[in-house]
Amino acid sequence: xxxxxxxxxxxxxxxxVIARTQAGxxxxxxxxxxxxxxxxxxxxxxxxxxxVHALQTESDWVLPQYREPLGLxxxxxxxxxxxxLYNLGHPLGGHxxxxxxxxxxxxxxxxxxxxxxGLAWGMSLxxxxxxxxxxxxxxxxxxxxxxxxxxxAGVLKAPVxxxxxxxxxxxxTPTNLQTAAKDFSSKAAAFGIPGVTVxxxxxxxxxxxxxxxxxxxxxxxxxxxxxATVYRLGAHTTADDPTRYVPAEDLSAxxxxxxxxxxxxxxxxxxxxxxDKQEEVEKAALERLDExxxxxxxxxxxxxxxxDHCFASDTSRLARQREQLxxxxxxxxx
Length: 334
Ligand SMILES: Cc1ncc(C[n+]2csc(CCOP(=O)(O)OP(=O)(O)O)c2C)c(N)n1
Ligand SMILES: [Mg+2]
Fold this sequence. Notes:
Layout: H1 6-31, H2 45-52, E1 61-63, H3 78-87, H4 112-125, E2 132-137, H5 144-156, E3 160-166, E4 169-170, E5 173-174, H6 188-191, E6 195-199, H7 203-218, E7 224-229, H8 248-256, H9 259-269, H10 275-297, H11 316-333
The site of thiamine diphosphate has 15 residues, from strand 4.
C-alpha cells in the first residue's frame, strides 16, 4: 500500500496552506464586493489535496464539485486562473486549457458524475492510460445522477474513483437527514464495487485510499467509492449564516481536529516545516491569488459567445437574452 513519503507530505501541506490562505483572502474580497460567491474550502483541504497528490496529472482527470478548485494546485496555475474568470462572471470562465486534465467546476449537484463515468469509459475503450476522479458531497449523493452513473460504472468497470467528501452538511441539512444508510461508502454495495470510508482530516489516509483505488482501476478492476469524512469549518458559502444551524459545540470540536493543525505539528516535529516557511508560503499564496485576480479582471468579457452557436441568426427571444446577458455582465464587471 502506498503512503506519501516525507517530501510528498511537505508538498501536500504546502498546498493545504495555500488553499486555506487564498480561501481566507477570497472571503474578505467577497465581503468587499470584489469577487462573487465563494464556497470556502476550510476543513476540506486534507481530503482534496491528499486525493489529488495520489493522481498522475499527465494521465488522470479530475472533476470537481465547487469547493475544490483552490485544492487542485498540483494540476497547475491554470486551475486558479480559470476559477477567477468563472467567479467574476465570464460566461465561458472556468474553461481550463489543454493539456490540464481538470474539468471546470460547476454548481449543479452530482451533474459531473455521469460525465466522469463517460470520460472513464471512453478512456478504457480507447486504451488510454489513467483514471478519472470525481469529487462530490454528501448532499450530492442523494441525486439520481449518482446512482445512475455509479451503477453504469460498476457494470462497465470504468476506471473511475468516486470521492464523496462528507463534510456533515448539505447547506443546513445534516447527514442524518440526508441518508438512512450507516455511511456513504456502503452505497457502493448496490453498484457491486468496493466502498471505503477514510478519515478525510488525514491526508496520508486519503492518499493511500486513492492510490489503492487508482491501482484497482488501472488494472481493469473498475471503480471504487471513497467517502472522506471531514467537518465543514466555514459557512456553506458567502451567502450562508451557519451560526443559525451548526451547533457551536460541534464546530469547536471540529476546530480542534482541523486538518492543518495535526499535520503542521507532525512536520514541525520532523523538522520539515517552520514558522518562516509558513510565512513565506502564505505570502506567495496571496501574491499568486492577486495575480490571478488581476488577470481575470483585465480579461475582456466575451458576452456574446455563450449564445453564438444556437441558431444561424438570432430569434427575437435570443436577441432579448443577448441584451440581458450583456447588461448583467457589464453590471457584474463594474
Ligand atoms: C441539482 C441541485 N440541487 C440543489 C442545489 C442547491 N444546492 C447547492 S449546494 C447544496 C448542498 C450540497 O451539499 P454537498 O453535496 O454535501 O456539498 P457541500 O456544499 O457540503 O460541499 C445544495 C442543495 C444544486 N446546486 N443542484
Ligand atoms: Mg456536504
